[in-house]
Amino acid sequence: MSTSKNRRRYGAALAAIVLLAAGTATPAQAGTPRGRYVVPGDQTHPEGIVRQEGSPYFYVGGTGDGTVYRGHVDRPRLEVFLPGGQDGRTTAVGMKISDGRLIVAGGATGKVFVYSIRTRALLHVFDSGATSTLVNDVAIAPNGDAYVSDSFHPVLYRITAGELADRRVHQELRTAVDFTGTEVVYEDGINGNGLVVTPDGRYVLMADTNSQALYRISTGTGRITRIDLSGVNDIGPDGMLLRDGTLYSVTSLFHPEGEIAVLRLSRDYSRATVVRRINGRGMDMPSTGAFDGGDMLVVNFQWQIENPHLPFTVVRVAL
Questions:
Q1: DSSP secondary structure letters along the chain
Q2: How many whole angstroms separate alpha carbon 181 and alpha carbon 187?
Q3: In terms of CATH, what superfamily is 3-318?
Q4: Which of 261, 173, 242 lies closest to 201 in space, CA to CA?
Q5: Chain centroid offset of residue 37 CA
Q6: Which of 56, 190, 268, 304 has the most CB atoms around its CB within 10 Å?
């Protein structure tokens, strides 16, 4: 597909989402969730989420002002964990937990912020120094390295386990793979987005929302392979999760009522087949999710909606 056609498709899809969201019936009316958690604020636009293993807690990032919220799976309302604007964190997007550290992608700040979950102390600020950037998602490799996507700047970043253990607070956010001149072509809109690392640590799987594509990126060589989706081009992947050879892609690009596309991966991660789709169930223009046993906690982002359906929520969806 040509660049111009791709851009038109993305623009048309986004316009359709906005029109549907402005209607009288909200997507949340389409189904009844098993659980619903309220995120405070009327301009929060929560985007990222991570579940803390071995505890009842999960964490959600707000793109409105960078507030990070903490939720309890048995309580209906989240509370402020890290106030917005603190440490220059004016937006909070994707996040992951590694070795007691909460790693937060800082969106347009071009930075990644790392905090102690136990003390809430700032441990690190990794700065890309890039402009026109959207540091978007974080994935943790088995060796402790963190990979970070940028939706506007055509690179994949890596923070090594050694850098995360270093006592220095301020460090450089380094490029692991530069997409310039590769088949990963950045256009207007959201490009590199959701990330997962395969259990063997050999590959990063990256969603490209703009081109409705998935890429397999070698952690050793940086070699890029477009994953064969067997002609399916309406996934519009955003957040992604990987478990037992199955990839879960959360999206609202073509599905403002929310969709989790469930894809079975080949053993070498070069092919993916959509085996089912989960729609509705309280989702409302979601961005991503986090596993909680056999369920997924899904964030209702409501991106760029001037009059969002309040309150903002996280909903529990049975997989």
A1: --HHHHHHHHHHHHHHHHHHHTSSS-GGGG---SEEEEEP-SS--EEEEEE-TTSSEEEEEETTT--EEEEETTSSB-EEEE-TTGGG------EEEETTEEEEE-BTT-EEEEEETTT--EEEEEE---SS--EEEEEE-TTS-EEEEESSSSEEEEE-HHHHHSS-SEEE-EEEEE-TTSS----SS--EEEEEE-TTSSEEEEEETTTTEEEEEETTT--EEEPB-TT-------EEEEETTEEEEEE-SS-TT-EEEEEEEPTTSSBEEEEEEEE-TT-SSEEEEEEETTEEEEEE--TT-SS--SSEEEEEEE-
A2: 13
A3: TolB, C-terminal domain (2.120.10.30)
A4: 242
A5: 19
A6: 190
Q: Tell me the pLDDT tens digit for each residue of 150-205.
A: 999 999 999 999 999 999 999 999 999 999 999 999 999 999 999 999 999 999 99
> Is 90 exceeded by the pLDDT of residue 85?
yes
Two structure tokens written together for 76:
């209906």
Q: Token match 């389409």: residue?
A: 30
Model pTM score: 0.89
Q: What is the total residue count of the chain?
A: 319
> What ranges do the domains of the chain cover?
3-318
The Cα-based distances of 271 to 106, 228, 263, 274 in angstroms read 31, 5, 9, 10
What distance in Å separates the CA atoms of residue 221 and residue 177, rounded to the nearest whole number?
Answer: 9
Burial 189-221 (b: 16+ CB within 10 A, else e): bbbbbbbbbbeeebbbbbbbbbbbbbbbbebee
